[in-house]
Amino acid sequence: MSPTQWDLPVELCCRPMAFVTLTGLDVVYNAVHRAVWDAFCANRRADRVPISFKVLPGDHEYPKCRPKRTSYEWYIPKGILKTGWMNKHLNLVPALVVVFYELDWDEPQWKEKQSECATRVEIVRQSLQGRNTKVAVVLIQKKTPLPPGEDVIASERAAALCNACELSGKSLFVLPHTDHLVGYIIRLENAFYEHAQTYYYTEIRRVKSHKEFLNKTTHQLLFVRHQFKIAFFSELKQDTQNALKNYRTAYNLVHELRAHETNILEIKTMAGFINYKICRLCFQHNTPLDAIAQFRKHIDLCKKKIGSAELSFEHAAWMSKQFQAFGDLFDEAIKLGLTAIQTQNPGFYYQQAAYYAQERKQLAKSLCNHEASVMYPNPDPLETQTGVLDFYGQRSWRQGILSFDLSDPEKEKVGVLAIQLKERNVAHSEVIITLLSNAVAQFKKYKCPRMKSHLMVQMGEEYYYAKDYTKALKLLDYVMCDYRSEGWWTLLTSILTTALKCSYLMAQLKDYITYSLELLGRASTLKDDQKSRIEKNLINVLMNESPDPEPDCDIFAVKTAQKLWADRISLAGSNIFTIGVQDFVPFVQCKAKFHAPSFHVDVPVEFDIYLKADCPHPIRFSKLCVSFNNQEYNQFCVIEEASKANEVLENLTQGKMCLVPGKTRKLLFKFVAKTEDVGKKIEITSVDLALGNETGRCVVLNWQGGGGDAASSQEALQAARSFKRRPKLPDNEVHWDSIIIQASTMIISRVPNISVHLRHEPPALTNEMYCLVVTVQSHEKTQIRDVKLTAGLKPGQDANLTQKTHVTLHGTELCDESYPALLTDIPVGDLHPGEQLEKMLYVRCGTVGSRMFLVYVSYLINTTAEEKEIVCKCHKDETVTIETVFPFDVAVKFVSTKFEHLERVYADIPFLLMTDLLSASPWALTIVSSELQLAPSMTTVDQLESQVDNVVLQTGESASECFCLRCPSLGNVEGGVATGHYIISWKRTSAMENIPVIRTVITLPHVIVENIPLHVNADLPSFGRVRESLPVKYHLQNKTDFVQDVEISVEPSDAFMFSGLKQIRLRILPGTEQEMLYNFYPLMAGYQQLPSLNINLLRFPNFTNQLLRRFIPTSIFVKPQGRLMDDTSIAAA
Amino acid sequence: MLTTRKCTILHLIRSHILKNTSRSFYFVIVGHYDNTVIKMKKNNHDLDEFTAHAALDLIDENIWLLNNMYLKTMDKFNGWFVSAFNTSAMYYALIMLHMNFIILHDIKQEDGIKHFFTDVYDLHIKVWYFL
Question: Which UniProt keywords apply (chain A) (predicted)?
Fold first, then answer.
């Protein structure tokens, strides 16, 4: 955009920097000079001093200084601030003029050169006559200078040069053209900066000195001017604190000026400038709150200063600019690191700027509505001789006139007219939209989505006014969803109304229809008469006619639109529009509801489509079709009526194709599901309702799923929460809110009419072939075909069970791992009505625990549904949980030959293995046989014959066996020695002959074998008799590889007398045996303790009598003397 | 379509507002889903509803920062003061009761508005429980 009258001048907005001119540099042809200039101006980073440099020729004419005023007594200022002043001090009048001159200290023609230099300085001085501008000389030298003080010639000549040029020593510099150019330049410019600061300081002093001559009555304007100048010079001096202070004073002084209609613009303009400077400096000083406070004060002070009513749009424009400028300053400060917050960000200022821009537009519209015949005045009152104004904010036709009276009302009138006519050409909408989009960007940044939406609505409306309907629609469409989803219907309606106008004016058919649909709907807050109008237009459009124009549209735009509509009508082409309703709230509501969550395949699937129109007049639809996830059903669910376009309004209340406002229409659909869909979900994917017909225009409303639009979920929620009692309706009508969408249903198989029974004798015993008898009986009225049985372990249980469960139909052979856990689809043929079949299943369970078994019977049957022959697959299943238990418990123990319990067995010494088999089965078991399989380390003492063959065990009964074994010495075996396996062959006593016998293998426990040094066994009769000799022979075997010293003693007993060695000490050689013979003579009858044999091994002190007692008997039964014997003894006597 | 509950609140509020404020105002109760529950206005147009709606941005942000329900005059827009009151500050758990009251008013009057809000809140709770 080109700068307008209201834009702040560039020289005001820039950061003032000390102005220094460089002369004597030939930057075009001299490479050295070029390098010097580049070092000054290229890559100026923030750490360099703020100076703006300019290269000027040595004889440049600087602006002339006006003669100093000696008295202000008769001086009347013509305005506050001259338009050229700021630019003059920024870009024209330097603080310092630097004369560059190539001169080495050892220059042979020194005198000539010195005077040339002096001349150059003189020329510059001449041009700056009357100004305080400093002059400095820089000598460009080829040689590196010696350190100060060492070069005598240099210091002499420098002094001479200073003298010749009338310079102080501080103003003469040397610039050696060597490698370190940039370093020298930086030092130079720091020196320049000091000079410049001194210059601006003197300037400030100079301006301040004028103050005393001023008086309050005639020089009010000068107070402001001087204060502004001081502040501006302070800024040039980079003394921002003082600048701010002075600007603040200036600001207060501006408001002290006497304001009148004629100078109000000037006051406001200056106030705006100073305010801008203050805010800018506040932000620069990182005191944003001060800036905001100043700006608020400024706005409060100025907003009522409207000035001339005829030009009030100027005030709005000015206000708008103030806000915009502040917004820009704020935004700039944020970019430099300031943090803004949600409630205080530039967006608000842009928004306010936009608001004033809108006001300006309104005012301009009402004030500048001159007729076309009014010509722009000639000569142009807004033209000035120079093309620019002398003072900021003055009227061009009365510049410098301070009188409050209008000296020339005619001239004034022409001037106002010129301004008004110019205002008419301003593209207001463009200004407003720019400001709004700035604001939108800010609100987006500061997380104010709703504020953003609000502004976007305004932007959209502005585009509408600017006749850019495409953009307007784009913006409105974007925000519509937000308002819709939050349910702010009034706002939505207002946006839709604008959008409808846009679409009408562009003759955008689809948009026009969409907006109409929604404006007629329940979300719209329009009055009924407006709705009627829109409905009429919609029907017109559907009949391929032009709609009536929307109210309050621009007349010219309407004319264009009517032409567009006429073109649309004549244009052949696609006239069918499909509109997805899930994103808006149309005037027809739809809900689909299946009658049940599931249907059997042999009964028809039924569902209702409920429709309700919210428009003011009845409307007729031409077609309703429902789509399913299985498209084959679509054909069954279509309602169509061949109606001509002109019939839409006729026969309104008749037929089901007509929707009466507020009444719920129910449409019943019915179809037979396919047998392939058994077990599948049937879903309504969409409902399409066609309005109009294909000969005219046709709109298809498309509901996804079972209906519902953008507002319905919220409504459903509110309805659910509401406690309101609904009024009673006639039986055939329903409350819309009470209808709950059910868009899917399951197709399930026909109810079976057979019975499945299971017969078995639980629990199952581990590893047995458990018999399960399945009985299937048909109760169907017709023959059932293809009966199939699936039986076995129910899937979905523990995976280990599958490994340990096997099912077979043949019970005569044992099944192994290769048999499955589930037998599937065993064909069992057909069944006539009432017929029954029996099937035996054998299950082998390898582990104990409970298992679920499934018996699933499926069959085919022919049946009819809705007079349609269908083949139904029915099935029935039974599950049974069967517990598996061990048939018996086997206990094994090791005992000594004396039946004493053994912890461990002794090598080479026989011991007994006792098995005890306890039936745990509730059913009688037959032990067919048993077998002991010995490990190689074990040997048997006698034959291993089963002692329990064909024994029948009832519950709780047990069968025991005993085997005598011996374990040869094996040395020390960790964890004991394997004994072997005990194998039991068994079956249920009740089981049939052909049922195989089950072999249950029991692993016998390991036994610890221990070596003993000496084994003693005794040979003695099984009983003794009183007073009869009882010979006892003890065998002592040395089991070691050493010669054993043995001490043997026999302790006497009361019950016996004995003969033999009572105490002896002997040696037994390794592996040999020593026999000890005793004759015991029992004295008493009964169970008597034998005289105990004590053995003491000298080498093995651990070998105790305790151990010994395990091997040799300690007691014996002594029978009394026999009667017969008695008789013979008597006889002998 | 208003439920009985809404009607009652509306009636009570109307009598209250008429008693308390005489200048123009725009009052809206906004529900948990940012939907308008009740709105009442006097001498204004759609623009004010836009303002009320936009004020929700500030409530959303400030609700977690403040402990009191009354959010004071949060905004000033087009000459309207925007004051708000958020019930969830006290009843985090009762989502049913989460409501925002927003009023746009043309005179700055912190105490009066605060009383008004407290009264409305009182009525709101009573109506909620006893109807």
Answer: ER-Golgi transport, Golgi apparatus, Transport
| Average pLDDT of the segment spanning A605-619 | 88
E strands present in A326-394? none
Cβ-Cβ contacts under 8 Å between A and B: the total is 62
DSSP string, A555-609: HHHHHHHHHHHHHHHH--S--EEEEE-TTS--SEEEEEEESSSEEETTS-EEEEE
Share in percent of chain B as helix, strand, coil (round to 5): 45, 25, 25
Q: Which of B35, B57, B131 sits opposite A449 (nearest CB)?
A: B57
Name the minimum distance, in Å, from the CA of B20 to any CA of chain A: 26
Average of per-residue pLDDT across A338-342: 81
Q: Say if CB A885 and CB A766 are below 8 A apart.
A: yes
Is B53 in contact with A486 (Cβ distance < 8 A)? yes
User: Which of A63-77, A179-193, A459-473 is predicted least confidently?
Assistant: A63-77
Residue that wins the pLDDT comparison between A965 and A341: A965
Contact A454 B51 (CB under 8 A): yes
CB atoms A448 and B46 under 8 Å:
no
Predicted confidence (pLDDT) per residue in A1112-1127, tens digit:
888 888 888 876 555 5
Q: Is the pLDDT of residue B92 over 70?
A: no
Closest by CA position to A360, among listed A424, A412, A302, A421: A424
CA distance A383 to A56: 33
Closest CB to A486 among B34, B46, B96: B34
Q: How far apart are CA A40 and CA A37, in angstroms?
A: 5
Q: Of all residues in chain A, what percent are helix, strand and coil, respectively (each to 5)? A: 35, 30, 35
- On whether any CB of chain B is under 8 Å from the CB of A487, the answer is yes
Residue numbers in A near B49 (CB within 8 A):
488, 490-491
CB contact under 8 A, A342 and B58: yes
Whether residue A201 has pLDDT greater than 90:
yes
Q: Encode pLDDT of A496-555 as tens digits.
A: 999 999 999 998 888 898 999 899 988 888 888 999 999 999 888 888 888 888 888 888
List residues in chain B touching A: CB distance below 8 A.
3-5, 33-36, 39, 46, 49-51, 53-58, 61, 74-75, 78, 96, 131
Q: Tell me whether residues B33 and A483 touch, CB distance under 8 A.
A: no
> Quick check: A223 and A257 in contact, CB under 8 A?
no
Burial A625-652 (b: 16+ CB within 10 A, else e): bbbbebeebbeebebeeebebeebeeeb
Q: Do A723 and B131 touch (CB under 8 A)?
A: yes
As a whole number of angstroms, the distance between CA B5 and CA B16 comes to: 17
A662 touches chain B (CB under 8 A): no
**Chain-chain contact of A488 with B49 (C-beta, under 8 angstroms):** yes
Q: Compute the radius of gyration of chain A from its Cα atoms.
A: 60
Complex ipTM, two decimals?
0.72
A300 in contact with B, Cβ within 8 Å: no
- Packing angle of the helix pair A312-335, A346-367 (nearest 10 deg): 160
Q: Rounded to whole angstroms, how far apart are CA atoms A1126 and A1097?
A: 45
Contact A491 B53 (CB under 8 A): yes
- Inter-residue contact A800 to A821 (CB < 8 Å): no
- Listed in sequence order, the residues at least 6 apart from A14 whose beta carbon sits closer than 8 Å to its beta carbon are A90
Please compute the mean of the pLDDT values over residues A255-267 and round it to a whole number: 86
Among candidate residues B104, B112, B97, the one with its CA nearest the CA of residue B83: B104
Q: Name the DSSP class of A257.
A: S
Tell me whether A445 touches chain B (CB under 8 Å).
no
Cβ contact B57–A450 (<8 Å): yes
